[in-house]
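User: Fold this one for me? It's Mannitol dehydrogenase family protein.
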Amino acid sequence: MASTSSNTNGIPLLDANLSSLPETVVCPVYDRTKLRAGIVHIGLGNFHRGHQAWYIHQLMQKGLAQDWAIIGAGVRPQDQLMRERLIAQDHLTTLIELSPKGKSAEVIGSMIDYLPIETRNTALIRQMAEPGIRIVSLTITEGGYFISSGDGGLDVDHPDIQHDIHHPQSPRTVFGAIVAALRLRREAGTGPFSVLSCDNLRGNGTIARQAILSLAQHIDSALAAWIEDTCSFPNSMVDCIVPATGPNEIALAKSLGVDDAAPVTHENYRQWVIEDDFCAGRPELEQVGVIMTPQVHAYEAMKIRLLNAGHQVLANVGELMALETIAECMSHPVISRFFHKVEHEEIAPFVAAVPGMTPSQYIAQIAQRFSNPEIRDTTRRVAFDGSSRHPEFLLPIIRDALDSGSSIEGLALVEALWARMCTGVRDDGTSIEDNDPNWERLKAVAQESAQRPAAWLEQHQIYGDLANDPIFEPAFCRWLQMISSKGGLATLQSYLENVQNPERGTPR
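Assistant: Here's what I get for Mannitol dehydrogenase family protein.
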């Protein structure tokens, strides 16, 4: 490990320097040299370090989970920069809690290595094949699951999946690497591991299971049968607002006494709900507040439909109106009213209560969290990858509402705001930079839809049968025409002020 050095802008974050950090910074009390790996986590961004890694760290602070340390991994070239930064500081991370009452910092040490980023994923496969690895966890974003727009299964026609089918020893994808590692474990007799998805997907464990089994079936049916019989794929729900890190966050860490190249800021709230289905053991996560329950789906539905969908209610109109953060959106009187109206009237009716929390109570809670001015969670970050987030978070609610005969006016407006945002120009004429893996295609369709609104809905890989729905399609087109001619703010005001027609809530 590197040795101590002085820095007037904070003490460099290293194992050797932990005892020299300010007393106000909480540091690991366990001996990191004695930790042993039990988890490989793929997709090691801010959220993982501010959420799952924090929970493991808390167990270690209690003298538990010493054999459940985390080894980080990535499969994208852009993960290399994070790897370099974390290796340079002994894989330590400063977490900075941003509460309306003040700031506090702690250093977590639950991660002990970060694997090389390789096109063939050799090091990742080898590490996952090690007998000590009992959980492989994922935060690879909603778009990383290769979900087919047709049947919702694995998109086996995707070029990367096709590559993995024909070159299983040198896979490109996370799932190809997992299948390759499980093949080695089966051959060596070292047993299976659990795959723990921590992404914002309904039934994330079920989706991960489906993807891995489908890919394995195309490669080796006997291996697929072994995976199905021995591995487990617990569903989970994760929740914590973790903004992106930039120069301001690095400067904040220095002001608190720590020179950290990759600090993580987060709100003063976390929740983790997991289905207790682990084939090779697990840490005692309930000891640090994790809810272990077979009823993950109820918690998951509440969070995805009210919080994640609620984020999209705010983010696209925030971008159009040049509001930088979610907190600024919540402080805007019109946008805030829009958020509450859509949440209470069009989303909450399709969310069930969970123990100790009704949908209305949850809306009040997330409204308070979204309004925290200390959390500079940008509208740009929240709006990113709408082509994955809207089909996952919003469109299922629209379908439920249509099936029940309920109003979809506000949700149709949310979709129209996304379409307008994707034109790449704000209401004030400034440009919106690329903000989706499919940005160029979305932008071209959005610009066409400014003249012919139905063009946006003709993206059948996103909207499917909603494109021709006799209630949703005209509502969407009407709102998009209004946004294009009058702007986002005037359109929101029209939605909020118009008397609703009792026949399915259509404005007069």
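One thing worth pointing out: The two ends are 69 Å apart (CA to CA).
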